[in-house]
Amino acid sequence: MEISVVSATNLSQEQVLSWARIQQHNPGLFSPFFRPEFTQAVASIRDDVYVAVVDDGAVFFPYQRNFFGMGRPVGGAVSDYHGLIAAPDYRLDPATLLRACGLTSWRFDHVPAEQTMFSSWQMIETGSPVVDLTPGDLPGSTALHADHRRKRRRLERDFGPVDVDLDMTDQSMLELCMTWKSAQYRRMKQPDLFAKPWARALLKEIATHHTVEFSGILSVLRAGGRPIAAHFGMRSGNVWHYWFPTYDPDFHRYSPGILLLLEMMAQAPKFGISTIDFGRGDNDYKMRISNRTVPLQEGIVVTNRLSSQMLGLKRNLFSFVKKHPTIKNVLNPAHQLLQDAYRRARLRMYWFVPLMFVQLVSELTRVCA
Question: Do 160 and 266 belong together in one domain?
């Protein structure tokens, strides 16, 4: 196995085409996060994005690397899928791959479960709720659709005609979408992702792509000509990734975000889209609307023996906790207190021991879920 590492900005055209072919022929790599354009978009605004090229382009492994040699998925906290770009039956040793990349570790939380080479490094089983639009009838209960039809009629009565633009290119609307999302993060006492210049620059870069294979899609819901909800996501083939939904809080009582989502679901097949992927999370609307789940893995690959031994102890602890769910009664209060710190830790890559403890408590709580 030959492995070479290049900056993602230095991929050759032949390598990019090879990557794209692998992605298109492996159903497990359906997400736009697995497209070469996504990695190139992140690399265009960050200088820490690399790609391991295995066996002259048979396999690609994109990643970010910090000063300490710690690896993370490309895009970090905004990445909803990551892993190897390879044929479905390809196997390799992740630790060997990391050593060739000069990495001491690679933390992951959205690797498809079918990439079984990461199974021995997995800590938590999780999943991404998905809306499969191929059955014909829109997913979601009859009561949910009836309730939102009523809200839409009330919205029209109070503010005027409701209209939707599912794929617009207005730069000012993208700015508004990010502004609303920043405010939403602050209301929920979460770290404001869009306070980071690179995150705003990334969405603007992705918004310049307009092909069926990879595109940024900005959708907007208006009432009486006034924008009240927006969503920015990505498309790859027949998959639409639901990424950054937001809305004007003044219209909260009308559930404008869900109204826009239901319109996206209704109109998606006209654009050749049969799947809307919500990304990982147990938000109520995801559970109510999704009709299947993509299994995912969360864990960390390490390359030195001591870290590997400590990881084994951690895995045994997780196994014990999973077998004794009553422990959740003790962990839950601690989890609530540390949740905000955990979110900050995820964005900062757990560089400090206290943040590693925060993460451990949060992970143990989710094991019990």
Answer: yes
Instruction: Please write the tens of the pLDDT for every residue from 187-214.
Output: 988 889 999 999 999 999 999 999 999 9
Asked whether residue 141 falls in the same domain as residue 89, the answer is no
- How many angstroms from the chain centroid is the CA of residue 8? 20
Sign of CA dihedral 192, 195, 200, 202: negative
Please give the Cα distance from 16 to 14 (Å, whole number). Answer: 5
**Statement to judge: residues 147 and 100 lie in one domain:** no
Q: Are strands 105-112 and 70-72 parallel, antiparallel or unpaired?
A: parallel
pLDDT under 70: residue ranges of the chain: 136-137, 140-141, 305-369
Indicate if 69 and 194 belong to the same structural domain.
no
- Three-state secondary structure of 194-229: HHCHHHHHHHHHHCCCECCCCEEEEEEEEECCEEEE
Residue 323 structural domain: 304-369
pTM of the full predicted structure? 0.85
β-partners of residue 85 are: 60
How far apart, in whole angstroms, are the C-alpha atoms of residue 359 and residue 352?
Answer: 11
Q: What is the pLDDT of residue 206?
A: 98
8 A C-beta contact, residue 321 and residue 327? yes
Looking at the fold, whether 146 and 266 belong to one and the same domain comes out as yes
Longest dimension (CA), the chain: 66
One domain, residues 171 and 230: yes
Whether residues 57 and 15 share a domain: the answer is: yes
Q: Is residue 227 part of a domain?
A: yes
Distance CA 273, CA 212 (A): 10
Does 145 share its domain with 96? no
Q: Are 52 and 103 in contact (CB under 8 A)?
A: no
Cβ atoms 119, 297 nearer than 8 A: yes
What is the domain-level CATH number for residue 249? Answer: 3.40.630.30
pLDDT digits (tens, 9 = 90+) for 242-253: 999 999 999 999
Count the domains in the chain.
3
Is 281 inside a domain boundary?
Answer: no
Q: Report whether 112 contacts 296 (CB < 8 A).
A: yes
* Residues 70 and 47: beta-carbon distance below 8 Å: no
C-alpha angle with apex 301: 300 to 305, nearest 5 degrees?
120
